[in-house]
Amino acid sequence: AMGPVLDTSLSPPKWYLINLTIAVTALIALAFAPLSPSSMPLLSGLALLMGVAMNAMTSSATAGMALTTPNERRGAVAGWLQCGQLGGAGLGGGLGLWLAEHAGGQVTAALVLAGLCAVCALPILYLRVPPRLAGVSVRHRLLDVMGALLTLARTRAGVLAILANVLPASLGAASTLLPTVAGDWHASADMVALVLGAITGIATLPGCVIGGYLCDIFPRRTVYILSALACALGEAAMAFGPHTPLWFAVFAILNALLLGLSWAAVSAVCFEQLGARAAATVAAVLSSISNLPVVTMVAIVGSVQGKHGSTGMLLVEAAFGVASVVVYVLIASVWRAEPTVGLQPVAAAA
Fold this sequence. Notes:
By secondary structure, this protein is mainly α. It contains 13 helices and no strands. α4 runs antiparallel to α9 (189-217), α6 (138-154) crosses α7 (156-166) and α10 packs across α13 (291-334).
């Protein structure tokens, strides 16, 4: 819902800073709010506000990228963006948990994380995007937004970008359940906390960067297909591999790296569809629909795990991944490519 607002009013850097302020304020307020049943409405409202602001920040950053980065370099941008979303979430969450437990409690954790967010946002101050055209009414800007969404839904490249987000490939759904089933590999609680916290958070970083730069060297849809197959192979290897603590750690780290690579490829495929207009809306739509297969697959593999164990859980998600790639390749092959002109950003203002 925020996409059209971002695309028709203030510049992406300004919206980024506004939403950063809202998110940081909500985070600090959550830390000071009392943890009691009576305060649940307040806690829920603050959490919702922070989530909306963070999503709007991502859309703003993506729109700024579309206005300043040529298409041939967007793979690298996608990789670094996923570094922040995957690695940053893992490392930031781990740091916040450690601070809350060992260094002053939740208030200290919130203040430190808020400060880190502010520091990480400093580069946005130096981003120069082209000014919006003067004299263009909000109505015409909204029509531009609708036109961009129709183009996304009707063109081959747009539909393939949508499919990359909705097909259940390389989601890491089984990985989200590993903390609850780590006993199948005889992994201790300390090992699970270490491996599935900081270590896998760090492991995603090289995967994201490698995947992003590969997408600037090779066709992005090809990288997406191969990385999705690699994710499926990694899960199958974990299913059939030795169920020992050592191999639990090895396969968890390997799959985290492959997941980072694949998510960077998905983002790069999507970034090809972002033009100078309605970039925030298109990015927000693609990001929103990507949540549906994640939720669905977590429910499916969770049900399978209860009936067939962790091996069955991993194999089922791997099978879904392979089937998704087959569907994607068939659609891409049957639907003939049309001549396209690479999307280029508008020249940035001095």
